[in-house]
Amino acid sequence: MLAFGGQEAFANEQPQIRPPSGALVRSSVSDVAIPPESQPQEQAETGNAAEGDAGAQGGIGAEKEAVPAAVETQHVNTVSFDIRPPARSPHIPKTRWQHMQGHSLWTRAAISALKSHGSPLVEMVPRDIANWCPAYSDNDDDQRRAFWVGYMSALAKHESTYKPWAVGGGGRWYGLLQILPATARGYKCNVGTGEALKNGAANLSCAVRIMAFTVKRDGVIHGRDKKWRGVSADWGPMRSSAKRQDMAGWLKRQNYCRLRNSTRPKSRP
What we know:
This protein has about 270 residues and is mainly alpha-helical.
């Protein structure tokens, strides 16, 4: 079995922002500190329920009759501003690793990689794509990225059974897609050690980097002439027809790979 890897950093942090004095601030970000005397009475919406962010709530501290009229007028006339971070895309494609802890982070990391150094995969149409995803040619970029994430999750089933801590080949291959540290370094992934490749997000980001090179170079996901081509050049499970059929069968059932006319309900007679 062959396999490869590296790490791409994947972290999002929300900055602490202190509103200017006297400003009326509306915020749904739970980690922005608002003094108790200026907190609104209404319950703020949660910023991201999937990530477990809690909503902020509070009340106006000073009673109305104790506040000078001039101050009230100043607050009413102050222009409010929005300090919420950009909304995260709600579209998370279906994958085969959804039962694993941390799967959403892996998926988002792979999507992020496909938007940057993996963009050649999204821009091209492999010659054998009909064997994997019949709708791919007509798909938009989001759906194409969904395919590649789903594809890697299907490959991970046969490489590591979705275990980011997996080590194979007598200590040679590491992580979700069983990447050789030397190969990760050769493709200039951000990390190139076995321990670093046990990070699921980093492993997938490096895999995207490798695939973006080999699939673009060979024009196919799987092929063989004198050499293995495409993804099959680096990943052993792709050299097994039974494993390829398992992967392709699962992918063709997903919404992002089904032809539009095959998903429409049949018209009534």
